[in-house]
Design goal:
eight-stranded parallel β-sheet; two-stranded antiparallel sheet; alpha/beta
Length: 289
């Protein structure tokens, strides 16, 4: 049986406000395995997370949450069909989609589906990697290519990438040519990260999808990810960015991806579960204000 997010009862899909979709897939990773185990590990860990978010003063004990049954995913086409079918059923803005991955390719079908609903859709990405390669090892649907595929749907200038610190020369050239809004990982060492995020969010459409690759956080906080890179965002920087995104934009969906779960990864699993709780709380606050 699929664990329920936050160990919260099970509201029927059509009556829920928050739709949590586990996406156990790692068909496109290139380094550390464990992404397919991530959704269940995060959902398990979420049972230990407080339902009351003290920082944002939001009580999730009365939130209407539906956790989708964990599917069996054998290839990328099955991922595309599953994610698309879930997102198509989510009635935004009354309902909130929260995908729990899984490698980062699980974001592509969510964007493909939402872009049909919102012709002007922005994407906010927290990540160590630009993910703007056209292909990796001959695979255009590698996790290293997901933002390139997403850019083809929403336009490269409707993307804001935060915490980027591992970039190929090809990606550097694409960022410069297409003017992708990018905040490098070392920016917060000498500048106000939140102010810069606020400034660049003004360039994005009203409706955005917020995707968090957990390697965007520093490995001292999130050690167990598919491709760890030192120098990422702190926990409080991550939450500051999230608050700014929800404060200034209408967030139509989020996902949290690229954890590498397995034996001994409980600290990372719990941190990822707590981050999912924060996203749910911020959406509830945004829609109850």
């Amino acid at each position: 049986m699929t664990p329920k997010f936050l160990d919260n009862g099970q509201t029927a899909f059509e009556n829920a406000n928050i739709i949590v979709a586990p996406i156990p897939f790692e068909g496109a990773i290139s380094y550390m395995p464990g992404a397919a185990k991530g959704p269940r590990a995060i959902l398990d860990a979420s049972s230990q997370v407080e339902l009351f978010d003290f920082e944002h003063q939001i009580d999730l004990s009365t939130a209407k949450i539906h956790t989708v049954d964990e599917p069996v995913l054998t290839d990328y086409e099955s991922v595309r069909n599953y994610v698309s079918s879930v997102v198509e059923r989510v009635k935004t803005p009354q309902q909130f989609y929260l995908g729990v991955g899984g490698d980062h390719t699980v974001t592509i079908p969510a964007i493909e589906t939402l872009a049909k609903r919102y012709p002007k859709l922005g994407i906010v990405q927290i990540d160590a990697h630009a993910d703007l390669r056209n292909e990796l090892h001959g695979n255009p649907y590698s996790h290293a290519c997901i933002m390139r595929r997403n850019a083809e749907k929403v336009g490269p200038r409707n993307i804001l990438s935060i915490g980027i610190r591992a970039v190929s020369e090809e990606e550097r050239d694409y960022i410069e040519k297409e003017k992708v809004n990018t905040i490098p990982g070392n920016f917060a060492l000498h500048e106000d990260l939140t102010a810069r995020v606020r400034e660049l969010l003004l360039l994005l459409p009203e409706h955005v999808f917020f995707t968090i690759d957990l390697d965007g956080l520093d490995p001292s906080i999130m050690a167990h990810v598919g491709t760890p890179v030192p120098g990422g965002l702190s926990w409080h920087q991550t939450l500051s960015v999230a608050r700014e995104v929800f404060r200034t934009k209408k967030v139509v969906g989020c996902d949290v991806v690229e954890i590498a779960s397995g034996a001994g990864t409980e600290r990372s699993d719990f941190a990822a579960a707590l981050l999912c709780q924060k996203l749910a709380a911020l959406w509830v606050r945004q829609n109850n204000s």
